[in-house]
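User: I'm putting together a teaching handout on how multi-component assemblies are represented. Below are the sequence lines for each component of a complex, exactly as they appear in our records. Could you produce the 3D structure of the whole assembly as structure tokens, so the students can see both representations side by side? Please keep the chain order the same as the input.
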Amino acid sequence: MLPDRIDFSPLDPSADRLHWERLVASVMARAGAELSRRAAQRTPLVLLAWWAKPALSAAAVIAAIAIGTLVFTERETAEAERMMGIADALEVPPPVNAWLVEERDPTMSDVIMALDDQQP
Amino acid sequence: MAATDAQLVERARGGDAGAFELLVRRYLRAAYAVALAELGDPAEAEDACQDALVTALEKLEECRQPERFARWLLQIVRNRARSLRRRSAVRAANSLEEVRGLPGTARPDRDAERAELRSRLLAALATLTPVQREVVLLHDLEEWRHREIAEWLGLPEGTVRSHLFHARRVLRARLGAGLLVEDADAAGSD
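Assistant: Of course. Below is the structure of the complete assembly, with chains in the same order as your input.
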């Protein structure tokens, strides 16, 4: 069994209310400059900049994806238009032109339909 | 509901003086107990606490587990107290036997009695080992539980109980049974 608790109240800084409050006030006074510095760092503009960082990162990623998609689509469209231009110059019939663009061999029904279209 | 340590630390990081003051009020006594155990002098212990609290505020970003702010703070307090003790080794050794008045408590009758008690307590504390001092001060002054002290000191709970037992026994022997009986009975035991 433990011996009785020792009464340390003569050493307790909070036993004297006035002294305790002075002690707390002293700490707060010494901490004042650092607290002010920290508060100044959290101005609305700085907070906005802080929040803007992840938003900017996300925007950059979205922009990169969008630019990549645009370039890819543009390239495919240009290729198709180039193919159409050559076909027009050679006066290739439209159905054949379509087979060329689609890079496929015509089926029997394609040929029959093309011949039917050529009929006056 | 009272704000958690983690919430107060986060607010203090943003310069919220009210949040920092709550942390100060919550842990100043524990910090004082740790510093007093190291230094043995109330005034120096208070100085160490003030330095440590300001340092803690300046380094608040280094507190990686804000929910364990107390442990982190007390480590700073202990380091600061040890640093102070090294700087004034001779003075600190003598101070345990000194009678020092607390500033701002100039009430001669009552203070004379308290000064006497304080002097005897400090002299008795000086006979303990540092870890015994820390255990008995955290338990009997700051009212921490055995488990909390064990966690803080990194000791088994049984060892903490043992330190407390021996510390109280030594203090009782030094202080005399009659000195603090009334207050001790009122405070009870854990």
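A couple of points students might notice: DSSP finds ten helices and no strands in chain B. Chain B has a mean pLDDT of 84.
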